[in-house]
Design the sequence.
C-alpha cells in the first residue's frame, strides 16, 4: 500500500511485484506501477523480459481501443446496408409491376400469359354473371357503376 | 457485430414484407390457404400483364364445391369491411352471397375487393382483389368511353 501511495518503486520492490505478477497476485494498481517503472529510463537489464511482456499487453490494449472506431463505422455501415435493403425491398413489394404474374389451377402452376389472362377473365365473368340479379337496383349508385365499369375493363375487352 | 446486422436485416425483411398492399388484409389468407388446393383457381397479375387496363394489380381465387373456403372468405371480409366503403352487398337467406368493397387508399393505390358466391349449377366462390392508380371517377370515364367505342365497333 505504501508503494502505491508513493507511486514510485525501488528495484527491490519491483522484483517483489514481478514475483507477485508471475504468481497472478498483483492488483491492477500494482501492475500499473510496475508498468510505469519498467517503462522508465535506466531499467535494469534483468527486467527486459517483464518489460517486453507488459509492453506487449499495453500495445494490445491500445489496439483494442483503436478498434472501437472501425466497429462504430461497421455498425453504421450495417445499418446503412439494412436501410438500403429496406428501401430496395419496399420498392420491390410496393411496386406491383415488379411482382410476377402466375396462376394455379388445382395446385398446378401456370405461367403462360394468355392462360393467366383467360383465367382472370373467367373469374371476373363469374362475378359479373353472379351479380346480374342485383344490377338493376344499383343503377343509380355511382360507385356501383364504377365497379361495374371496372369489371367491364376485363369482361368487355378481350385480353 | 454480425448479430446486429442479422437482426436489422430480419427487421427490414419483416417490415418490407408488410408493405405489400394486399398483405395487410384478411382476405390474403384466403388466397394463401386455398389458392393452391384442388378445385381452386388462383390468378395473380402484375402491371406488365395489365398493360392497357386501369388496374395495376389483380389477384383472384375461384373455388368450386368448397364451402369451407367460402365461409372463411366471408369471415375475412367481415374484418376487411371495417373502414371500407361497402359499394354493393347481397345477402341470400341470411348469408352474404355478394359484396363489393372499396378499401381505404393505400399510398397511391385505390383498392377493391369483390366477392361473389353462386350455388348453381355448383357452389362456386369468387374473390377478387384489385389495385388501381386511378380514382373511381377517372376509371368510370375511361370505362364508359371504352364501352361506347365497343358499341360503335359492334
Sequence:
Amino acid at each position: 500500500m505504501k508503494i502505491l501511495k508513493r507511486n514510485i518503486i525501488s528495484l527491490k520492490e519491483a522484483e517483489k511485484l514481478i514475483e507477485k505478477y508471475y504468481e497472478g497476485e498483483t492488483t491492477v494498481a500494482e501492475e500499473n506501477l510496475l508498468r510505469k517503472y519498467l517503462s522508465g529510463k535506466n531499467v535494469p537489464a534483468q527486467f527486459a523480459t517483464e518489460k517486453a511482456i507488459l509492453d506487449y499487453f499495453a500495445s494490445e490494449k491500445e489496439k483494442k481501443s483503436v478498434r472501437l472506431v472501425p466497429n462504430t463505422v461497421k455498425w453504421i455501415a450495417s445499418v446503412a446496408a439494412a436501410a438500403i435493403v429496406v428501401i430496395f425491398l419496399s420498392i420491390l413489394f410496393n411496386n406491383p409491376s415488379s411482382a410476377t404474374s402466375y396462376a394455379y389451377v388445382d395446385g398446378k402452376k401456370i405461367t403462360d400469359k394468355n392462360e393467366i389472362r383467360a383465367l382472370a377473365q373467367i373469374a371476373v365473368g363469374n362475378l359479373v354473371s353472379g351479380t346480374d340479379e342485383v344490377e338493376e337496383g344499383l343503377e343509380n349508385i355511382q360507385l356501383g357503376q364504377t365497379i361495374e365499369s371496372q369489371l367491364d375493363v376485363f369482361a368487355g375487352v378481350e385480353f | 457485430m454480425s448479430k446486429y446486422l442479422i437482426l436489422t436485416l430480419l427487421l427490414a425483411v419483416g417490415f418490407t414484407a408488410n408493405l405489400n398492399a394486399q398483405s395487410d388484409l384478411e382476405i390474403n389468407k384466403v388466397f394463401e390457404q386455398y389458392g393452391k388446393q384442388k378445385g381452386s383457381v388462383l390468378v395473380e397479375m402484375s402491371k406488365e400483364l395489365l398493360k392497357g387496363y386501369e388496374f395495376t394489380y389483380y389477384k383472384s381465387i375461384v373455388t368450386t364445391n368448397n364451402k369451407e373456403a367460402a365461409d372463411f372468405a366471408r369471415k375475412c371480409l367481415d374484418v376487411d369491411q371495417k373502414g371500407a366503403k361497402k359499394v354493393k352487398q347481397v345477402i341470400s337467406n341470411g348469408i352474404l352471397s355478394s359484396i363489393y368493397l372499396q378499401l381505404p387508399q393505400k399510398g397511391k393505390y385505390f383498392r377493391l375487393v369483390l366477392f361473389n358466391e353462386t350455388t348453381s349449377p355448383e357452389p362456386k366462390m369468387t374473390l377478387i382483389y384489385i389495385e388501381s392508380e386511378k380514382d373511381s371517377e377517372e376509371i368510370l370515364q375511361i370505362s364508359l368511353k371504352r364501352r361506347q367505342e365497343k358499341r360503335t365497333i359492334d
Summary: The first helix of chain A runs from residue 2 to 6. The radius of gyration of chain A is 40 Å.
